[in-house]
Amino acid sequence: MVQDSLQLLTDLDQIREAFSVWRNAMEQQGHRVGSISEGKIYFRRKGSDFKLGLDPAGDNWTVELNEPEQGTENPLSGLARNSTGQRYLLRQGTLHKNAQSARVESHDFEERTGLKPAAVTIDGKPAKRTWFIVTALDRPAAEICQNTAAFVDRCGLARNPDAAAAAKQDDERLVELFGPPEKGGEIAGQATVSRNERWRIHGEVWQKLKALLEADGRKLVKPLHVYGYEVDGVVEAQAGKLLLEIKTCVAAADVYEGIGQLALYPRLLPRLSGHRRILLLPGSPSDPLIAAVGECGVELHCYKFQKNGEKVDVCFSPQFLKACDLDP
Hints:
328 residues
Protein backbone atom coordinates (compact mmCIF):
# COMPACT_ATOMS: atom_id res chain seq x y z
CA MET A 1 0.00 0.00 0.00
CA VAL A 2 1.29 3.47 -0.89
CA GLN A 3 1.67 5.57 2.28
CA ASP A 4 2.91 8.94 0.97
CA SER A 5 1.46 11.14 -1.75
CA LEU A 6 2.24 10.64 -5.42
CA GLN A 7 3.53 13.42 -7.65
CA LEU A 8 1.92 13.33 -11.09
CA LEU A 9 4.62 13.48 -13.77
CA THR A 10 4.38 16.49 -16.09
CA ASP A 11 7.61 16.11 -18.07
CA LEU A 12 6.79 14.29 -21.32
CA ASP A 13 10.13 12.47 -21.47
CA GLN A 14 9.61 11.11 -17.96
CA ILE A 15 6.03 10.17 -18.85
CA ARG A 16 7.15 8.28 -21.98
CA GLU A 17 9.92 6.47 -20.09
CA ALA A 18 7.60 5.40 -17.28
CA PHE A 19 4.80 4.31 -19.63
CA SER A 20 7.28 2.30 -21.70
CA VAL A 21 8.00 0.18 -18.61
CA TRP A 22 4.32 -0.78 -18.41
CA ARG A 23 3.99 -1.22 -22.18
CA ASN A 24 7.03 -3.51 -22.35
CA ALA A 25 5.69 -5.61 -19.48
CA MET A 26 2.39 -6.05 -21.30
CA GLU A 27 4.14 -7.01 -24.51
CA GLN A 28 6.29 -9.56 -22.69
CA GLN A 29 3.22 -11.26 -21.26
CA GLY A 30 1.00 -11.36 -24.34
CA HIS A 31 0.50 -10.20 -27.91
CA ARG A 32 -2.08 -7.93 -29.47
CA VAL A 33 -5.27 -9.72 -28.44
CA GLY A 34 -3.41 -11.68 -25.80
CA SER A 35 -4.30 -12.85 -22.36
CA ILE A 36 -2.89 -11.96 -18.99
CA SER A 37 -3.86 -13.25 -15.56
CA GLU A 38 -4.35 -16.86 -16.63
CA GLY A 39 -6.50 -16.05 -19.65
CA LYS A 40 -8.97 -13.84 -17.79
CA ILE A 41 -8.04 -10.35 -18.99
CA TYR A 42 -7.43 -9.50 -22.64
CA PHE A 43 -5.80 -6.50 -24.30
CA ARG A 44 -5.26 -4.95 -27.71
CA ARG A 45 -2.60 -2.40 -28.51
CA LYS A 46 -2.75 0.35 -31.13
CA GLY A 47 0.36 2.49 -30.95
CA SER A 48 0.59 3.66 -27.35
CA ASP A 49 -3.12 3.06 -26.70
CA PHE A 50 -4.24 -0.11 -24.90
CA LYS A 51 -7.77 -1.43 -24.74
CA LEU A 52 -8.32 -4.02 -22.00
CA GLY A 53 -11.29 -6.13 -21.04
CA LEU A 54 -12.87 -9.43 -20.11
CA ASP A 55 -14.11 -10.35 -23.59
CA PRO A 56 -11.75 -12.82 -25.36
CA ALA A 57 -13.26 -11.85 -28.73
CA GLY A 58 -12.21 -8.26 -28.17
CA ASP A 59 -15.61 -6.83 -29.12
CA ASN A 60 -16.26 -4.99 -25.86
CA TRP A 61 -13.40 -3.36 -23.98
CA THR A 62 -13.73 -2.49 -20.31
CA VAL A 63 -11.12 0.26 -19.93
CA GLU A 64 -8.41 2.04 -21.93
CA LEU A 65 -4.93 2.74 -20.60
CA ASN A 66 -3.25 5.14 -22.98
CA GLU A 67 0.06 7.00 -22.87
CA PRO A 68 -0.63 10.61 -21.80
CA GLU A 69 0.24 13.13 -24.49
CA GLN A 70 0.43 16.02 -22.06
CA GLY A 71 1.56 16.49 -18.50
CA THR A 72 -1.79 17.65 -17.14
CA GLU A 73 -4.84 16.07 -15.51
CA ASN A 74 -6.78 16.01 -18.78
CA PRO A 75 -5.73 12.51 -19.93
CA LEU A 76 -7.52 9.71 -18.07
CA SER A 77 -4.22 7.84 -17.59
CA GLY A 78 -1.30 9.27 -15.67
CA LEU A 79 2.19 8.45 -14.43
CA ALA A 80 3.42 9.41 -10.98
CA ARG A 81 6.23 8.83 -8.50
CA ASN A 82 6.44 8.85 -4.72
CA SER A 83 9.03 10.49 -2.47
CA THR A 84 11.49 7.61 -2.96
CA GLY A 85 11.23 7.67 -6.76
CA GLN A 86 8.98 4.62 -7.14
CA ARG A 87 6.86 5.07 -10.25
CA TYR A 88 3.17 4.23 -10.68
CA LEU A 89 0.64 3.98 -13.49
CA LEU A 90 -2.60 5.75 -12.53
CA ARG A 91 -6.08 5.90 -13.98
CA GLN A 92 -9.01 8.20 -13.26
CA GLY A 93 -12.20 6.44 -12.24
CA THR A 94 -14.20 7.81 -15.16
CA LEU A 95 -15.18 5.16 -17.71
CA HIS A 96 -16.78 6.26 -20.96
CA LYS A 97 -20.11 4.87 -22.13
CA ASN A 98 -19.83 1.75 -24.29
CA ALA A 99 -21.77 -1.41 -25.14
CA GLN A 100 -21.21 -2.72 -21.61
CA SER A 101 -22.52 0.18 -19.57
CA ALA A 102 -23.43 3.83 -19.32
CA ARG A 103 -20.76 6.33 -18.36
CA VAL A 104 -19.23 5.60 -14.95
CA GLU A 105 -18.15 8.56 -12.81
CA SER A 106 -15.31 8.43 -10.28
CA HIS A 107 -17.59 8.35 -7.22
CA ASP A 108 -19.46 5.36 -8.69
CA PHE A 109 -16.15 3.73 -9.57
CA GLU A 110 -14.93 4.01 -5.98
CA GLU A 111 -18.19 2.71 -4.53
CA ARG A 112 -18.50 -0.27 -6.88
CA THR A 113 -14.88 -1.37 -6.95
CA GLY A 114 -13.93 -0.81 -3.32
CA LEU A 115 -10.71 0.87 -4.51
CA LYS A 116 -9.55 3.95 -2.63
CA PRO A 117 -8.21 7.02 -4.45
CA ALA A 118 -4.50 7.73 -4.22
CA ALA A 119 -3.25 10.97 -2.69
CA VAL A 120 -1.93 12.75 -5.77
CA THR A 121 -0.35 16.17 -6.23
CA ILE A 122 0.55 18.03 -9.38
CA ASP A 123 3.10 20.86 -9.34
CA GLY A 124 3.01 20.70 -5.54
CA LYS A 125 -0.78 21.18 -5.29
CA PRO A 126 -3.48 18.57 -4.59
CA ALA A 127 -4.86 17.04 -7.80
CA LYS A 128 -8.33 18.18 -8.82
CA ARG A 129 -9.24 14.81 -10.37
CA THR A 130 -9.63 11.48 -8.56
CA TRP A 131 -6.84 9.02 -9.34
CA PHE A 132 -6.52 5.29 -8.67
CA ILE A 133 -3.38 3.17 -8.76
CA VAL A 134 -3.19 0.57 -11.52
CA THR A 135 0.24 -0.79 -10.62
CA ALA A 136 3.67 0.10 -9.34
CA LEU A 137 6.11 0.10 -12.26
CA ASP A 138 9.48 -0.74 -10.68
CA ARG A 139 8.43 -4.36 -10.37
CA PRO A 140 8.89 -7.60 -12.39
CA ALA A 141 6.86 -7.70 -15.62
CA ALA A 142 4.66 -10.55 -14.37
CA GLU A 143 3.71 -8.57 -11.26
CA ILE A 144 2.91 -5.47 -13.33
CA CYS A 145 0.59 -7.51 -15.53
CA GLN A 146 -1.02 -9.23 -12.57
CA ASN A 147 -1.76 -5.87 -10.93
CA THR A 148 -3.09 -4.51 -14.22
CA ALA A 149 -5.36 -7.52 -14.62
CA ALA A 150 -6.72 -6.99 -11.12
CA PHE A 151 -7.46 -3.34 -11.96
CA VAL A 152 -9.26 -4.28 -15.18
CA ASP A 153 -11.27 -6.81 -13.23
CA ARG A 154 -12.35 -4.02 -10.87
CA CYS A 155 -13.28 -1.85 -13.85
CA GLY A 156 -15.55 -4.70 -14.93
CA LEU A 157 -17.31 -4.44 -11.57
CA ALA A 158 -17.68 -0.68 -12.04
CA ARG A 159 -19.52 -1.31 -15.29
CA ASN A 160 -21.77 -3.96 -13.69
CA PRO A 161 -23.54 -2.62 -10.57
CA ASP A 162 -25.19 -5.97 -9.82
CA ALA A 163 -21.85 -7.80 -9.89
CA ALA A 164 -20.32 -5.03 -7.79
CA ALA A 165 -23.05 -5.42 -5.16
CA ALA A 166 -22.49 -9.18 -5.07
CA ALA A 167 -18.72 -8.66 -4.75
CA LYS A 168 -19.31 -6.23 -1.88
CA GLN A 169 -21.39 -8.86 -0.09
CA ASP A 170 -18.56 -11.35 -0.61
CA ASP A 171 -16.06 -8.85 0.82
CA GLU A 172 -18.28 -8.29 3.85
CA ARG A 173 -18.49 -12.03 4.36
CA LEU A 174 -14.69 -12.31 4.15
CA VAL A 175 -14.33 -9.59 6.77
CA GLU A 176 -16.76 -11.51 8.99
CA LEU A 177 -14.75 -14.70 8.53
CA PHE A 178 -11.18 -13.42 8.51
CA GLY A 179 -11.32 -9.94 10.00
CA PRO A 180 -10.25 -6.75 8.19
CA PRO A 181 -7.74 -7.49 5.38
CA GLU A 182 -5.12 -5.08 6.73
CA LYS A 183 -4.85 -7.20 9.88
CA GLY A 184 -4.59 -10.49 8.06
CA GLY A 185 -0.81 -10.72 8.08
CA GLU A 186 -0.22 -9.76 11.70
CA ILE A 187 0.95 -12.04 14.48
CA ALA A 188 0.74 -11.04 18.15
CA GLY A 189 0.36 -7.38 17.26
CA GLN A 190 3.47 -7.29 15.08
CA ALA A 191 3.63 -6.00 11.52
CA THR A 192 3.56 -8.35 8.56
CA VAL A 193 6.36 -10.85 9.01
CA SER A 194 9.13 -11.57 6.55
CA ARG A 195 9.70 -14.92 4.89
CA ASN A 196 12.62 -15.67 7.25
CA GLU A 197 10.54 -14.78 10.30
CA ARG A 198 7.74 -17.04 9.03
CA TRP A 199 10.19 -19.89 8.80
CA ARG A 200 11.40 -19.22 12.32
CA ILE A 201 7.87 -19.09 13.76
CA HIS A 202 6.91 -22.27 11.90
CA GLY A 203 9.98 -24.04 13.25
CA GLU A 204 9.42 -22.88 16.82
CA VAL A 205 5.81 -24.06 16.78
CA TRP A 206 6.81 -27.44 15.35
CA GLN A 207 9.64 -27.89 17.87
CA LYS A 208 7.40 -27.00 20.83
CA LEU A 209 4.77 -29.54 19.79
CA LYS A 210 7.47 -32.13 19.19
CA ALA A 211 8.85 -31.56 22.70
CA LEU A 212 5.40 -31.90 24.29
CA LEU A 213 4.76 -35.17 22.49
CA GLU A 214 8.19 -36.58 23.31
CA ALA A 215 7.60 -35.77 26.98
CA ASP A 216 4.48 -37.91 26.68
CA GLY A 217 6.40 -40.75 25.04
CA ARG A 218 5.20 -40.05 21.50
CA LYS A 219 6.63 -38.61 18.29
CA LEU A 220 5.65 -35.87 15.86
CA VAL A 221 5.97 -37.67 12.54
CA LYS A 222 6.55 -35.85 9.22
CA PRO A 223 5.43 -38.10 6.32
CA LEU A 224 7.26 -37.38 3.06
CA HIS A 225 6.15 -38.16 -0.48
CA VAL A 226 8.74 -39.55 -2.89
CA TYR A 227 8.50 -36.32 -4.95
CA GLY A 228 9.14 -34.12 -1.94
CA TYR A 229 5.66 -33.24 -0.65
CA GLU A 230 6.10 -32.90 3.11
CA VAL A 231 3.38 -32.85 5.73
CA ASP A 232 3.88 -30.68 8.82
CA GLY A 233 3.01 -33.51 11.14
CA VAL A 234 0.97 -36.53 12.15
CA VAL A 235 0.04 -37.11 15.80
CA GLU A 236 -1.11 -40.40 17.30
CA ALA A 237 -4.16 -39.80 19.51
CA GLN A 238 -6.67 -42.11 21.15
CA ALA A 239 -9.52 -40.84 19.02
CA GLY A 240 -7.48 -41.34 15.83
CA LYS A 241 -4.49 -39.90 14.02
CA LEU A 242 -4.26 -36.14 13.43
CA LEU A 243 -2.95 -34.62 10.21
CA LEU A 244 -1.53 -31.15 10.94
CA GLU A 245 -0.79 -28.12 8.81
CA ILE A 246 0.82 -25.13 10.57
CA LYS A 247 0.38 -21.58 9.27
CA THR A 248 2.12 -18.46 10.55
CA CYS A 249 -0.54 -15.93 9.47
CA VAL A 250 -4.32 -15.76 9.61
CA ALA A 251 -4.78 -14.03 6.25
CA ALA A 252 -7.40 -15.52 3.97
CA ALA A 253 -4.71 -16.72 1.55
CA ASP A 254 -2.98 -18.67 4.32
CA VAL A 255 -6.23 -20.34 5.33
CA TYR A 256 -7.02 -21.21 1.71
CA GLU A 257 -3.55 -22.67 1.25
CA GLY A 258 -3.75 -24.69 4.45
CA ILE A 259 -7.12 -26.17 3.56
CA GLY A 260 -5.87 -27.02 0.09
CA GLN A 261 -2.81 -28.78 1.48
CA LEU A 262 -4.91 -30.78 3.93
CA ALA A 263 -7.20 -31.81 1.09
CA LEU A 264 -4.30 -32.72 -1.22
CA TYR A 265 -1.95 -34.61 1.09
CA PRO A 266 -4.25 -37.62 1.72
CA ARG A 267 -4.49 -38.07 -2.05
CA LEU A 268 -0.73 -37.90 -2.50
CA LEU A 269 -0.10 -40.09 0.54
CA PRO A 270 -2.99 -42.60 0.77
CA ARG A 271 -1.85 -43.70 4.24
CA LEU A 272 -3.02 -40.31 5.51
CA SER A 273 -6.63 -40.85 4.43
CA GLY A 274 -9.01 -41.06 7.36
CA HIS A 275 -6.88 -38.81 9.58
CA ARG A 276 -8.55 -35.89 11.36
CA ARG A 277 -7.34 -32.82 9.49
CA ILE A 278 -6.29 -29.86 11.64
CA LEU A 279 -5.20 -26.39 10.53
CA LEU A 280 -3.16 -24.66 13.24
CA LEU A 281 -3.31 -20.84 13.12
CA PRO A 282 -1.59 -18.08 15.15
CA GLY A 283 -4.76 -16.79 16.74
CA SER A 284 -8.32 -17.67 17.69
CA PRO A 285 -10.49 -18.05 14.58
CA SER A 286 -13.98 -16.55 14.53
CA ASP A 287 -16.97 -18.84 14.98
CA PRO A 288 -18.20 -18.25 11.38
CA LEU A 289 -14.75 -19.17 10.06
CA ILE A 290 -14.65 -22.34 12.16
CA ALA A 291 -18.08 -23.30 10.83
CA ALA A 292 -17.20 -22.52 7.22
CA VAL A 293 -13.93 -24.44 7.30
CA GLY A 294 -15.58 -27.26 9.23
CA GLU A 295 -17.82 -27.84 6.22
CA CYS A 296 -14.60 -28.67 4.36
CA GLY A 297 -13.84 -31.37 6.90
CA VAL A 298 -11.03 -29.37 8.54
CA GLU A 299 -10.75 -28.38 12.20
CA LEU A 300 -9.28 -25.01 13.14
CA HIS A 301 -7.14 -24.68 16.26
CA CYS A 302 -4.82 -21.94 17.42
CA TYR A 303 -1.49 -21.19 19.05
CA LYS A 304 0.21 -18.06 20.37
CA PHE A 305 3.77 -17.16 19.46
CA GLN A 306 5.46 -14.69 21.77
CA LYS A 307 9.00 -13.33 21.58
CA ASN A 308 10.71 -11.36 24.34
CA GLY A 309 14.20 -10.52 23.15
CA GLU A 310 15.82 -13.86 22.34
CA LYS A 311 13.32 -15.79 24.44
CA VAL A 312 10.55 -17.49 22.49
CA ASP A 313 7.39 -19.06 23.86
CA VAL A 314 4.68 -21.02 22.05
CA CYS A 315 1.34 -21.78 23.71
CA PHE A 316 -1.32 -24.03 22.19
CA SER A 317 -5.04 -23.70 22.82
CA PRO A 318 -6.58 -26.09 25.38
CA GLN A 319 -8.80 -27.49 22.63
CA PHE A 320 -5.81 -28.39 20.47
CA LEU A 321 -3.91 -29.95 23.38
CA LYS A 322 -6.99 -32.00 24.22
CA ALA A 323 -7.20 -33.23 20.61
CA CYS A 324 -3.56 -34.34 20.93
CA ASP A 325 -4.26 -36.06 24.29
CA LEU A 326 -1.98 -33.58 26.04
CA ASP A 327 -2.68 -31.86 29.34
CA PRO A 328 -3.80 -28.23 28.93
